[in-house]
């Protein structure tokens, strides 16, 4: 099934792509709002090549290709930490995007990556 959908990746596949130099891109799909002491919104994660030519959307599993959504900043930051990120930059506005490099990669920045203007 993954062969039929080359533009998606599971969490396990994302780890492999990060080791190959891909970046994590966090995309805000629904503007964040603060409720009491927590922030809620909808964020998705993509694996992107550094040159921007190849991107893959994170899905929940190989058997069920549903885009994985994060609905709280706490959940998103926990995921980024599990992927090895030492810092997190989270877009709060719909359409916002932030990239993160995987630590341990030669020359990698251990935190958000500033995308160059095309």
In short:
This protein is an alpha+beta fold and 118 residues long. It contains two helices and seven strands, in the order βαββββαββ. The protein has one domain.
Give me some keywords for this one.
118 residues, alpha+beta, seven-stranded mixed β-sheet, 7 strands, 16% helix
Distance between the termini: 33 Å
Rg computed from alpha carbons, rounded to a whole number of angstroms: 14 Å
User: Got a strand count?
Assistant: 7
Number of helices: 2
Strand content: 25-35%
For the sheet with most strands, the description reads: 7 strands, mixed
* Morphology call: globular
Q: How are helices and strands ordered from N to C?
A: EHEEEEHEE
Structural class by sheet pairing and helices? alpha+beta
- Let me know the average pLDDT: 85
Region (Disordered): 92-118
Task: Please specify the SSE layout and strand pairing.
Elements (H helix, E strand, L loop, with lengths): L7 E2 L1 H9 L3 E13 L2 E11 L6 E4 L10 E4 H10 L14 E4 L11 E2 L5
Task: Describe the protein.
The chain has about 120 residues and is of the alpha+beta class. It has one domain (about 1-105). Helices cover about 15% and strands about 35% of the residues. It has 2 helices and 7 strands; from the N terminus they run βαββββαββ. Strands 1, 2, 3, 4, 5, 6 and 7 form a 7-stranded mixed sheet that branches. Strand 2 and strand 3 (about 40-50) form a beta hairpin. The longest helix is centred in the middle third of the chain and has 10 residues, at about 75-80. The protein starts with 7 loop residues before the first strand and ends in a 5-residue tail after the last strand.
């Amino acid at each position: 099934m993954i062969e039929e959908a080359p533009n998606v990746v599971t969490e396990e596949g994302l780890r492999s792509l990060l080791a190959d130099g891909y970046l994590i891109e966090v995309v805000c799909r629904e503007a964040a709002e603060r409720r009491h002491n927590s922030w809620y919104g909808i964020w998705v994660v993509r694996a992107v090549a550094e040159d921007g030519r190849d991107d893959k959307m994170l899905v929940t599993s190989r058997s069920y290709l549903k885009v994985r959504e994060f609905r709280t900043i706490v959940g998103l930051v926990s995921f980024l930490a599990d992927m090895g990120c030492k810092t997190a930059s989270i877009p709060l506005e719909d359409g916002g995007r932030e990239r993160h490099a995987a630590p341990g990669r030669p020359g990698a920045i251990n935190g958000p990556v500033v995308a160059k203007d095309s």
